[in-house]
Amino acid sequence: MINQKRLVSLVQKLIRINSENPPGDESRIAAFVKDYLSRRGLKARIYEFKKKRSNVVAVLEKKGSKRSLLITPHLDTVPCGQNWHFPPFRGMINKGRIYGLGATDRKGDLAVGLEVINSIIEDRIFLDYNLIFAATADEESGSGLGVIPLLDKGILKPDAAVVLDADDFSIVVAQKGLAHLKVKIEGKRAHGAYPWLGINAIDIASLVIQELKSRKAGCSKNKYLKASTLNIGTIRGGDKVNVVADWCELELDFRFLPGESAKKIIEDLKSIIKKHAKKFKIEIEGIQRPYQINEKHPLVDGLKKAMRKMGARPRVEGSEGATVITFFQDKNIPAIATGFGCGGCNHIADEYVKIGNLYKGAKVLEEFLKNYKS
After folding, report:
1. In this structure, are 312 and 350 located in the same domain?
2. Rounded Cα gap, residues 75 and 26, in angstroms
3. Mean pLDDT, residues 49-58
4. Both 282 and 301 in a single domain?
5. Are residues 40 and 56 in the same domain?
6. Could you tell me if 183 and 165 lie in one domain?
7. CA nearest to 33, candidates 20, 47, 46
8. Which CATH number covers residue 200?
9. What CA–CA distance (Å, rounded) separates 204 from 78?
């Protein structure tokens, strides 16, 4: 049976273990999770793809079963920042809320996953599949030391996956892709008093930005997601006020819908820049494909039923931002995201999670796992 007092205590203990990324060190919290699972009889192992960047993988086995389901939260948080009124590493309780860094993103859901496994074992519930639990590193910086290598190396190869990385009982079935691109524009240096003797790379960049902003978004539409977007994240250029800038760099953040591609975005970007610049370079800093799963998939259907049974209202949605669900499609593994954090609390000072959400969420997840059919 899910134990609320035990669940709350577990969230507090996890919050008190600093796992900010950057700088990136999940070793202490991973050791805590591994010990927790090992003491309950699971085979738990730590995998590192860089020193102290620790991932925990454990399996609750069903002998003779070849079926498997993965549930996976992440271990790291964003940096703490300033302007906190509640201590960020204490897990203080106030008016039904637990305050602390990672309370919503994602130590609350990490605690839910651990408590559910504990409850299943205590109540001698026997699942008819292998339940894989993976608490991963580096989610806040792209998962290059977490989910990605765990999948690429075949350490994780479930039949399906539930990513614990969402808020307010949402079920994420679609997600935008992203392309992070750096544009380097080259001009010609000259004295600032004689700008006609040079080629100002900042001027060129401004023309490129104007055309990018007026560019029509992709033609695709999606009932779960808003239209494709572009954000000019950074711009740097020039060496001194009285020198014609012979260089300028832009960092661009494109978010695009299922049915659109990063390849087409890069082709369009090149076409626009060529109109204004003779010399330029585009560097790819990161690309993630968009993702969508059928709302009738057993993962979605099972979660909706579990939520309704436990008195929660399921919300089938899309994610404008990035979760790790996109990486599972490269391995043909169906995946969704869900979670029980509080919307609007991710990455803020005085981050909190509602105790009631976590308690009900744990009951939902347990009900889902007990009745899951692939």
Report:
1. yes
2. 7
3. 98
4. no
5. yes
6. no
7. 46
8. 3.30.70.360
9. 35
Query: Are residues 224 and 148 both part of a single domain?
Result: no
Domain encompassing residue 77: 4-175+291-371
| Beta bridge mates, 56 | 46, 135
CA distance 142 to 326: 11
> What CATH number is associated with residue 305?
3.40.630.10
Give the N- to C-terminal CA distance of the chain in Å, as an integer. Answer: 24
All residues at 6 or more sequence positions from 267 whose CB lies less than 8 Å from its CB, including other chains: none
Residue 91: alpha-carbon gap to chain centroid = 23
- Answer yes or no: are the C-beta atoms of 248 and 202 closer than 8 Å: yes
In this prediction the pTM is 0.91
Name, in order, each residue with C-beta under 8 angstroms of 239's C-beta and a sequence gap of 6 or more. 245
> What tokens were used for 370?
């007990």
pLDDT band (50, 70, 90) for residue 72: very high
Show which of 288, 308, 336 is a domain's final residue: 288
The count of domains in the chain is 2
Whether residues 324 and 214 share a domain: the answer is no
The string of pLDDT tens digits covering residues 215-252 is 876 667 899 999 999 999 999 999 999 999 999 999 99
pLDDT of residue 217: 64
Handedness of CA 103, 335, 113, 143 (dihedral sign): negative
In DSSP notation, 176-241 reads -EEEEEEEEEE-B--BTT-GGGSB-HHHHHHHHHHHHHHSPPPS--BTTBPPPEEEEEEEEE-S-T
145 close to 53: Cβ distance less than 8 angstroms: yes
Q: Do 150 and 24 lie in a common domain?
A: yes
Q: CA–CA separation, 206 vs 235, rounded Å?
A: 10
Q: Could you tell me which residues come within 8 angstroms of residue 79 by beta carbon, excluding any fewer than 6 positions away?
A: 20, 21, 22
CA distance 54 to 187: 45
Same domain? 67 vs 124: yes
Is residue 242 packed enough to be buried (19+ CB in 10 Å), middle (13-18) or exposed (0-12)?
exposed
Separation of alpha carbons 27 and 15, rounded Å:
14
Q: With contact defined as beta carbons under 8 Å apart, do 292 and 173 qualify?
A: yes
Domain boundary among 288, 316, 331: 288
